[in-house]
Amino acid sequence: MIRIKDMSISYRDKLALDNVSLEIRDGKITGIIGPNGAGKSTFIKGVLGLVESTTNNIMFDNDKIDQIRKEIAYVEQRNQIDLTFPIKVKDVVLLGTYPRLGLFHSPKSKEYEEVKNCLKLVKMEEYADQQIAELSGGQLQRVFIARALAQDATIIFLDEPFVGIDMVSEKVIINILKKLKDNGKTIVVVHHDLHKVTEYFDDLIILNTKLVDYGSVESIFTTERIQAAYGDSMGSVQVRGVS
């Protein structure tokens, strides 16, 4: 279980997250939802120690993140990637094997075979020798998922993996995530489409700078909590699956 206590994060004196405390269950797919600017991506970066927060009380079971960083994969937003960097698809996936290799060790036939298998799982094996700049948004996201698979991480964080991708890629990715969950992996996903919440997630975190609520989808995905997070921005939209 991942435990976060009293986490606040500010950017240039502007509060992005305000005193968030919660728990993320092992072996589940947990979605993070909330309006634009709610602090969803900031939350993930705070948990991973990628931005400075006010708390040192973030535990992965009984460990601090520095003790288990090799066990954690992070798939960032696509717009944060430099697509002009000259790197092939297979080499991006190969990067996922490096945490296990350690310093001063080069990939061998085992790692290259792992890359092939991971690309096959995401149905991208035929693109292995292409530059990442040549891929569509959905194809690129599948490559990043393959990189996480190559890492064989026990915890996977994904920041808006379904934004701007085709339906085929979305289906491939969510099916892989569900298989990973069935194998005991813990998966945390920043998500924007409320209509997919009940289909995709076991647990849910609802943010709007402050924590609105967290828990199982069945217990907290309600009209009251959605209104508390989104306010008038939802208008009269009817959300599929909301209680």
Automatic annotation (TrEMBL):
Pfam families: ABC_tran. SUPFAM superfamilies: P-loop containing nucleoside triphosphate hydrolases (SSF52540). Keywords: ATP-binding, Nucleotide-binding, Transport. Residues 2-234 form the ABC transporter domain. InterPro entries: AAA+_ATPase, ABC_transporter-like_ATP-bd, ABC_transporter-like_CS, Metal_Ion_Import_ABC, P-loop_NTPase. Signal peptide: none annotated. GO terms for molecular function: ATP binding. Belongs to the ABC transporter superfamily. This is Iron/zinc/copper transport system ATP-binding protein. It comes from Breznakia pachnodae.
